[in-house]
Amino acid sequence: MSASEQAAAAPALARTARRKPRRMGGWDWTRWIFLTLLLIYATAPIVWMFLTSIKGQFAALQYPPEWIPKEPTLEHYIRLLSPQEETGREFLRYGLNSLWVSTATTVIGVVIAVPAAYAFSRFRFPGRKLLFYSVLVRNMFPAVVFLIPLFIMMRWLRLVNTSWSLILTYLTFGLPLSIWLLKGFYDNIPVQLEQAARIDGATRFQAFIRVVMPLSTPGIIATAIYSFILAWNEYVYALTFLNDKSKLTLPVGLERFFAQYTTNWPGLMAAAFVMSVPVVILFLILQKYFVRALTEGAVKS
Amino acid sequence: MTAQDQRVRKLRRTSTAFVALVAAGAIGMSSAMAQTTIDRSKWSPDYVREIAGTLEVDTAKECAEVTPLDYEGKVTFWYVGPTEAEPDLHKQMDQEFWDAFKETYPNIELTVQNINYNQMLDKLRTASLGRAAPMLARMPILWGVEFAAKGFLQEMGPEDVGYTVDEFWPGAMKSVTWEGTTYGIPTNNETMALIWNSELFKEAGLDPESPPATWDQLVEYSNTIKQETGKSGYGLVARVNAGNTPFRFMPVMWAEGGGALDEAEDNPTYEDVYIGNAGSKKALQHAYDMYVRDKSVPVSALTNTQTENQDPFIAGQLAMVIAHPAEYATMLDRARKATGSDKEIAQKVVDNMRYGLIPEGDVRRSVVFGGSNIHMFKDDFVDGGEVDRQAALALVCFMTSPEWSTKLSWVISNPGNLRGFATKWNKERLDSIKFLDVATSMLPYGVPFPVIPESTEIMNIIVPGMLQNALTEKMTVDEALADADDKVKELRSGL
Amino acid sequence: MATAIGETRPTARRGPGLAGRIYKHRTDYLYILPALIVMFVVIGYPVYYVVELSFFKTPPSLAMSEKIFVGVDNYSRILQAKSFHEVTMNTVVWTVFSTLFAFILGFGAALALDRAFFLRGPLRGALLIPFVISAVAGSFVWRWMYNSDIGVIGAFLVELGITDRPLNFLDNTQTVLASLIVVNVWREFPFAMIMMLAGLQTVPDELHRAAKMDGASVIQRFFHVTMPHLKSVTLITVLLLTVNNLNSFIIPWIMTGGGPANASDIWITAIYQLAFGRVRFGIASAYSVILFLVMMVLGYYYVRIMTRGDERRAE
């Protein structure tokens, strides 16, 4: 508590001294100690995931553990990623499935969220508030509760065992936050810009596409990353809706390393690591949009 | 079906050699079959070795009698197939099976789902509820009755695919029978055995070549090993909702005269609740003594499944485990594939690995009668609303044939079809896998889990829950037993 | 034709009847229609199904034609069960502490990062990693690190001489919930961080300067200048975290399955266990409805905060 309070005040002080180079003060020390500890907390599991993944199966089980692998090996990665082997083919298949499901969810999600957010921001149609609430409330429903009824429904829709069952479901997780974020953006875009376009003869829809859309790009990128990550990592529905081995996504496929009688910790860690890399990279590249979207859109009031 | 009756008769006639053999030998349990106990004196490693390789079979010919080889149709099938971490040989046999089936029945279109053991039960429940079940499913022995009792399964027995009931273990047939009707066919059956690390025994000053004879002794051994070597003695498993737990704990309960219900008795009625009795108490006390009093077992027992115990065992950190034949195979496989310094450790553990009978208790020696059965779903519950019965029977016949029930269980189990024991393939197995000796000789001590639909809940939730309540000291041993007793009674009363 | 932007307010006040207004705005609905269809398809039926089933006793056979109407019996049985109270306690502890610590750490990190300095970008990125990684992968790693026999955390503490044998994290009723909260906070604090960071960047510098001139101390400025600006983003963040925590399933399920001896069983895992482990769909549904109701209360505040700015603009 006290550490965070101290850290809390640090930037305020630092702010005043923004351009002046000076010695590290008490607040700075607190800040750096806090950030260092937090950094260890955040990344140690990832580091250990990686270190385990480059050990042999026996080496991984040593107690006390080998802190740094004595005989590092890439065998688990090679097996996972080589298309010549059964395991590799399967794993790559899961990866492609995940990619497809996440991309489709993201693209469709953006296409749906953008006009909805715009409408909620600009138009004053009856029932607007109620509908906006009901969209937001979506995130209140836990996945586990819906497994059986959704499964039954997907079966009616003939979607069981298809990636569309997942795409349809995932759309609903991402939408509320996307719509809310984007609406914040549109709220902050002056109406006058569109009015000017309208005077120049554009229709309302054209004004929306040509004027408003480009201005909300950071928001769109942010919501896209958000939906992508949600879809990429989702586990419970994927576990229930898919049986066909050729359609599984990565989080569910990961469990194939836990069998009834055997387990392969380094293999599991390697798979978890490979699975995490794409989203982490994607996120790191695009994170500034995420912060900006929150700053300029939703949080600003 | 008269055609099938004929087929059975024909089979009887054509393979008199086999019948004679089985009558003389394998059905040395024949008296047993009538009384549902097995003539334990005949079934021994020697006896199994004696009959191996004496029978020639032609699977295609046998199954052609059930479904013509040019039959056109399709079949959907789910099973717990080989996974990434399993022995190569097992994966290879699985592949050969599907290749052989496609070659024999080129016009039957197959949709096969290999599903993870830990996910299969939930998936099958959801799928049958959503009417999207497969036509056929091979399930671990404990699960079938639940689906039969729910009315999801079709009546189907060995006669439907040209075999006789006598060709399967009576305990296995019991597991596919619900209210007098047969709902499936055993594909493979196995029992577990005790394996230990003789090196650790030696280090602890114990006789490296002889395992504890009783559960009391096992508790002592475990403690001695912990005291002397600092390594864990016995690989206790107590995770909730994991099949591994009852498979390793129920044998102790039964051995000491306890049980969930009266399933370990010769003629169980499944009416009496045994979980609160003195035998069950003794068994739970053993677990308590090892985990809480002596701290001689892995601390992670409460979150571990057996898979995680196998790791310390093979790393030489754990002295005794109750192991499935598949684990033995996996360890050999890992030792073979290990490289560098791993190779040495693994080879050493494998060299020092000994196996023997599971200890006795005050009342009996026992082990869970394990294995899998294949079941056919009813039309109503199947994806597409219709089972292609001929195509399905072809696959069932193939899978439960002496040839394939042997090959598919090569490293991990035993043929469900007893004729499989007499094939040349079984001889080959016996020659190459020494662990089979002991796992096979445990078979007569096998007790099937209660054949009631509540079995999965009792075994996967109530029994592990009882263990956890006692081992975490949330409850005393007596309270934990009483609590479990209440839960089983409540469950049985149909609430 | 379509409504002109900006001319909505007056007409909405005293226009024609509701039907007329809906008709007038008919094209507006086209914009939100896709979102609504998806939402209602995926939510409408399941909610109906769960609520209906909560009033029935379902046979273990799950033959739905045999379900028996029992009124609120399922509810009263849940509320009276001893286990419900235990599980509820766990749920409260889990939700409150996860939310609290995730928020404190996240806010702390946001404050520490709210200024350009060397390595700020990479540092922020690194701190965001746990948020991006799948919960499944994260749970497996932590379970592996916590292992009571060969886990790296235990080994590390032994190395430091803090204990002489690996600590028991997950196999102990006293420590398991706290251990899981550590994992959950690990997953969630980056979210709080990024939200608060966004909030902080909307605090105008001039206010700080003015306060400084008035002689306000660092701490005074924090409480009188920074905090008031962050009120609504704080509320949103805390609410989103709370909702998320009430709904979190993967971490407890993969790491402990609710054990040992139910010490880490929370509502969601209990519901899953009832529905799938024990095939009591009726009771599981009633349990879910109770969860819904709690969520609805939270949902009410959530929506109010989320749409607060909106009200102002709309008027």
Describe the structure.
The complex is a heterotrimer of chains A (301), B (495) and C (315). With 301 residues, chain A is mainly α. Mean pLDDT of chain A is 81; it is low at 1-20. Chain A has 2 domains: 2-53, no CATH class; 75-299, Orthogonal Bundle (MetI-like fold), CATH 1.10.3720.10. The longest helix of chain A has 37 residues, at 86-122. Chain A is built from 13 helices and no strands. Chain B has 2 domains: 2-191 and 369-447, D-Maltodextrin-Binding Protein, domain 2, CATH 3.40.190.10; 193-367 and 454-492, D-Maltodextrin-Binding Protein, domain 2. In chain B, helix 11 (215-229) runs parallel beside helix 13 (278-293), helix 12 packs across helix 13 and helix 15 (325-337) packs antiparallel against helix 16. Chain B is globular and about 65 Å long. Chain C contains 16 helices and 2 strands. The longest helix of chain C has 32 residues, at 82-113. Chain C starts with 7 loop residues before the first helix and ends with a helix. Residues 1-13 of chain C have low confidence and may be disordered. Chains in contact: A-B, A-C, B-C. The interface between A and B is large, with 38 and 47 residues.
CATH superfamily name of the largest domain in chain C? MetI-like
Report the CATH C-level class of the largest domain in chain B: Alpha Beta
Total count of domains of chain C: 2
Strand content of chain B: 5-15%
The CATH architecture name of the largest domain in chain B reads 3-Layer(aba) Sandwich
CATH topology of the largest domain in chain C: MetI-like fold
Q: Compute the gyration radius of chain C: what is it?
A: 25 Å
Structural class of chain C, please?
A: mainly alpha
Unreliable runs of chain B: 1-40
Describe the global form of chain B: globular
Discrete helix count of chain C: 16
Q: Which word captures the global form of chain C?
A: flat
Order of helices and strands of chain C: HHHEEHHHHHHHHHHHHH
The major pleated sheet of chain B works out as: 6 strands, mixed
Major beta sheet summary of chain C: 2 strands, antiparallel
The total of helices of chain B stands at 22
Would you count the extended β strands of chain C for me?
A: 2
